[in-house]
C-alpha cells in the first residue's frame, strides 16, 4: 500500500526505517517547490539556499522546462541507443554549439559523466599519445569531489567516502589544489594522460583557486600533451556568474566561448543544472580528436541520450540563456559576499566568506568537530532559509539563480539575524 504523508515526523520515520542511512538530512520534509521557494509538509515556506547542490539553478519547477517534460513524456521517452531518435540529434547540435565543442557524449548522472571522461582520456592516451597499455596515469587534485563510484572514490581523500570500499582503482595521482608547480612536476611523468579538476572545489567547501590557476593549468597540460578535463558539474551552467567557471572574468552575458579569457578544456563534464532538476542528465563535451577514440560498443548507457532527458536539457539550457542567469548570479553574488563580509567583520563567530557568483560559503569560527555550522543551519531553517553544512564548519550558500535582489536582501537579513543570535 502506498502511504500518504500527513506530517514531517511521519515522513522522517519512514525514511529512518526503510531507507539506507547514506545521508544525514536536515530535519525538514519538503513537499513543494516553485522558483526560489520550497514548502514543507506543514505548509511552511523556505528560501532554498542549496538548489539541490546546484542542480536547480533555473529555480524549482520552472514552467518552461516542466512543459517540455510533459510534452516529451506524452510523445516518446526511451528507445535505447539501438535505434536513432528524433530529439538526440538536435540536442547534440544545440549543446555543442552552446559550449563550443565538436561532439558530445550524453549520460545520466554526474559520476557517470566523470567515468566517461576518464575512459575517453585513457583510450586517447593509448591510441593518440602512445602511452603503453595499462600504464596511463590521471592527475587529480586533493580534496576533490567527482562522485561516488568505486573508481571515483579511489582518488578521493575523504576517508568517509573511501574507507572499506577498496581495493581501489589504480592509475590516479593526487596533487595539491591550486598549485601549478605541483602540476608541472607531476606532468614530468610521460604516462600522464589527463588532469581532472574542478574550477572551484564545491563539496570541499567552495575553495576558489587563484584567478590564473585554471588558465595556467590548461597551458601546462597543453604543453605536455595532457588532456585538461574540467568537472563543471557543480560550477557550470551560470552558477558562478558566467556560463562556465572556466570562462573566468569576462563580461559576456553567459556566452563565454566567444571571449578571450575563455579557457577551453579538452573535455568538459556537465551534469546537475543541465536539466534544471527535472531529470538526471550529464554530458561530456570534447573535440573530434579526443571524442573520436570512442567507437560503437565501447561505451554507453541504456538511458543516456533518451528523448525525455535531452529535451529537458535543451530547454533548461535555453532558460539559462534567455533569462540571463549568469549575469544575475554575478550581480547577486557581489551583493551577497558584501553583506556576508559585513557580518564576518562584525561577528567573531564567522571566520570568512568566499565564492564566486552564487556559489559561496561562509566559514564558521569553530573547530572542525563542533556542531556550530549544523546548529546554525537548523536555526536558519527555523527562520525560513535552507542551507547545509559541508565538510565541518563551512556553510554553502547557493540559491537558485532566478532570485531577485530584494529576495536576496531578505535572505541576508535572515542570515544576519541567526548569526547575531549565535553571537550572544
Ligand atoms: C555532484 C557532483 C558530481 C557527481 O554528480 P552525481 O550526479 O551526484 O553523480 C561530480 N562532480 C562534481 C563537481 C559534483 O559537484
Oligomer: single chain
The outline comes out as globular
Number of helices: 14
Q: What is the mean pLDDT?
A: 95
**In which range does the helix fraction lie?**
25-40%
CATH class of the largest domain: Alpha Beta
CATH architecture of the largest domain: 3-Layer(aba) Sandwich
What is the SS-derived class? Answer: alpha/beta
Please report the distance between the alpha carbons of the first and last residues.
50 Å
CATH topology of the largest domain: Aspartate Aminotransferase, domain 2
Report on this model:
The longest helix is centred in the last third of the chain and has 22 residues, at 325-346. The strands form three sheets. The protein has a seven-stranded mixed beta sheet with strand order 4-10-9-8-7-5-6, with helices on both faces. The protein folds into two domains: 8-58 and 325-421, Aspartate Aminotransferase, domain 1; 64-322, Type I PLP-dependent aspartate aminotransferase-like (Major domain) (Aspartate Aminotransferase, domain 2, 3-Layer(aba) Sandwich), CATH 3.40.640. It is built from 14 helices and 15 strands. It is α/β, with parallel strands linked by helices. The mean pLDDT is 95. Helix content is 37%, strand content 16%. Pyridoxal-5'-phosphate binds at residues 53, 109-111, 114, 145-147, 198, 202-203, 231, 233-234, 271-272. Keywords: Aminotransferase, Pyridoxal phosphate, Transferase.
Amino acid at each position: 500500500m502506498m502511504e500518504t504523508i500527513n506530517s514531517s515526523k511521519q515522513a522522517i520515520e519512514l525514511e529512518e526505517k526503510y531507507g539506507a542511512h547514506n545521508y544525514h538530512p536536515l530535519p525538514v520534509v519538503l513537499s513543494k517547490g516553485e522558483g526560489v521557494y520550497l514548502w514543507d509538509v506543514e505548509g511552511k515556506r523556505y528560501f532554498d539556499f542549496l538548489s539541490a547542490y546546484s542542480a536547480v539553478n533555473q529555480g524549482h519547477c520552472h514552467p518552461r522546462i516542466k512543459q517540455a517534460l510533459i510534452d516529451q513524456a506524452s510523445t516518446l521517452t526511451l528507445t535505447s541507443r539501438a535505434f536513432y531518435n528524433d530529439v538526440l540529434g538536435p540536442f547534440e547540435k544545440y549543446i555543442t554549439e552552446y559550449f563550443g565543442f565538436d561532439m558530445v557524449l550524453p549520460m545520466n548522472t554526474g559520476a557517470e559523466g566523470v567515468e566517461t571522461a576518464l575512459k575517453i582520456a585513457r583510450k586517447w592516451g593509448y591510441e593518440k599519445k602512445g602511452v603503453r597499455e595499462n600504464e596511463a596515469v590521471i592527475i587529480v587534485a586533493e580534496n576533490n569531489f567527482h562522485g561516488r563510484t568505486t573508481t571515483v572514490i579511489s582518488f578521493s581523500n575523504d576517508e568517509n567516502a573511501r574507507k572499506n570500499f577498496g581495493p581501489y582503482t589504480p592509475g590516479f595521482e593526487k596533487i595539491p589544489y591550486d598549485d601549478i608547480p605541483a602540476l608541472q612536476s607531476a606532468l614530468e611523468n610521460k604516462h600522464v594522460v589527463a588532469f581532472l579538476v574542478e574550477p572551484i572545489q564545491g563539496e570541499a567547501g567552495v575553495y576558489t583557486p587563484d584567478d590564473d590557476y585554471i588558465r595556467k593549468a590548461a597551458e601546462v597540460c597543453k604543453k605536455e600533451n595532457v588532456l585538461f578535463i574540467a568537472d563543471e558539474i557543480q560550477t557550470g551552467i551560470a552558477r558562478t556568474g558566467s556560463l562556465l567557471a572556466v570562462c573566468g572574468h569576462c563580461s559576456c552575458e553567459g556566452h563565454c566561448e566567444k571571449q578571450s579569457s575563455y579557457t577551453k578544456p579538452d573535455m568538459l563534464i556537465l551534469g546537475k543544472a543541465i536539466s534544471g532538476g527535472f531529470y538526471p542528465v550529464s554530458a561530456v563535451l570534447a573535440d573530434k580528436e579526443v571524442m573520436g577514440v570512442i567507437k560503437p560498443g565501447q561505451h554507453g548507457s541504456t538511458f543516456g541520450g533518451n528523448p525525455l532527458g535531452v529535451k529537458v536539457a535543451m530547454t533548461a539550457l535555453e532558460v539559462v540563456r534567455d533569462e540571463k542567469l549568469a549575469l544575475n548570479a554575478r550581480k547577486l553574488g557581489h551583493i551577497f559576499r558584501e553583506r556576508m563580509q559585513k557580518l564576518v567583520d562584525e561577528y567573531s563567530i564567522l571566520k570568512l566568506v568566499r565564492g564566486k557568483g552564487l556559489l559561496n560559503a561562509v566559514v564558521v569560527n569553530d573547530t572542525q568537530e563542533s556542531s556550530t555550522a549544523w546548529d546554525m543551519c537548523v536555526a536558519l531553517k527555523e527562520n525560513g532559509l535552507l542551507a547545509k553544512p559541508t565538510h565541518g564548519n563551512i556553510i554553502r550558500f547557493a540559491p537558485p539563480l532566478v532570485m531577485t535582489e530584494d529576495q536576496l536582501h531578505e535572505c541576508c537579513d535572515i542570515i544576519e539575524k541567526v548569526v547575531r543570535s549565535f553571537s550572544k
